[in-house]
Amino acid sequence: MDRVILHCDLNSFYASAELLDLPELRESGAPVAVCGDPASRRGVILAKNEAAKAAGVKTGETIYQARNKCPDLVLLPAHHDKYRHWSRVINAIYERFTDLVEPFSIDESWLDLTGSLHLFGGDGRAVADRIRATVREETGLTVSVGVSFNKVFAKMGSDYKKPDATTVITRENFRQLLWPLPVTDLLFVGSAAARTLAGYGIHTIGDLAVCDREALVSILGKQGATLHAYATGAEHSSVLPARDQPPPKSVGNGSTFRRDLTTWTDIRAAVTALSDQVAARLRREGMKCTAVQVTIRDPNFRDICRQKRLIAPSCVSRDIAEAALALIEESWNVPSPIRALTVTGQNLLPEGEAAEQLSLFAREAIDRRDKLEKLERAVDGLRARFGRGAVGPASGLEEDTDPGDGPGFHPERE
Prior knowledge:
Blueprint: E1 5-10, H1 13-19, H2 23-28, E2 32-35, E3 45-48, H3 50-54, H4 63-69, E4 74-77, H5 80-94, E5 101-105, E6 108-112, H6 124-139, E7 143-148, H7 151-160, E8 166-168, H8 174-178, H9 191-198, H10 205-210, H11 213-220, H12 222-232, E9 250-261, H13 264-285, E10 287-297, E11 303-314, H14 317-331, E12 338-350, H15 351-358, H16 363-386, E13 401-403
Helix pairs in contact: 5-6, 11-12, 13-14
């Protein structure tokens, strides 16, 4: 018996969440986009509503480019705490229908209804429609849902028709619906893979599906076998709820700067802010890092990466920042300009294991680190209560960063 898998994708999530608090703007039908900084021509579009999409506005392009296409575009700042709140609310709705809910991103989740479908009438399309109606009535947001027998085809179903639609992809119709689509519509086929495949005459998902599997392996390596399984419907991975997800192997944050960083004052400010974010995320995950990586991007988009082991596992922002600054000092010739920075905590350990390792070090160092960690956990509590902006490092660089416009950030999936 086939599984019944749903993929739920919130429509224009960031923009829709912002418009919940702006009913007049929502009702006007105006083109709206969410971006890192509405005042900056170099800020980046993070999401847009359907009206902006119809005008040609694309996620990832600069505000300058977007406004050239759509002069009437209304720009709104991003509020990531708001998006996380609504993501939790929506996933709680999904969990009324099954306990097997796997978030794919902040606005997308897979649901495995195989074991619970009989409780809701036994029809996947009807349940998908019920979920869409529940989300719309309780939150004012809309969601597109794909229904299929595996995760990849369910994901492609939610992409097939938007907004606020249900698409069912079955063993009988997937060739008709999906095989004529360009190969880039298949999950995880990027531009580089598409260019390589085009050199072999593979342009559509159908071309990929009928290609010999071993030939694809010779062209793309292991990825070739994976993509062949995706195209033919042979993908069968499980829906893993958050409780069953493996712990992260790394935690990173990055920013692209509106002006190049050319002084140590600015570099320290940027690293302090990024390290603060990384440390906070580590504490939320109950993890500590044993190494720090820095990725530096110059104005010509060339990247260099450097790593450094910490003396002991840590989730303290000062430890992470000191390691990151040491790496930059060793590997970068200031005042050579820096366009973007990413700071990543790597080789993570659960807090319990990290405490065992830390006990090998001097008592004085342990006491210092414990005090800093307690202080930063107190700051976490204040931020949880009053918002992230309530307490932060006094870097003075906020006006020159595009939060999230960098190698460590992922804009809303669309």
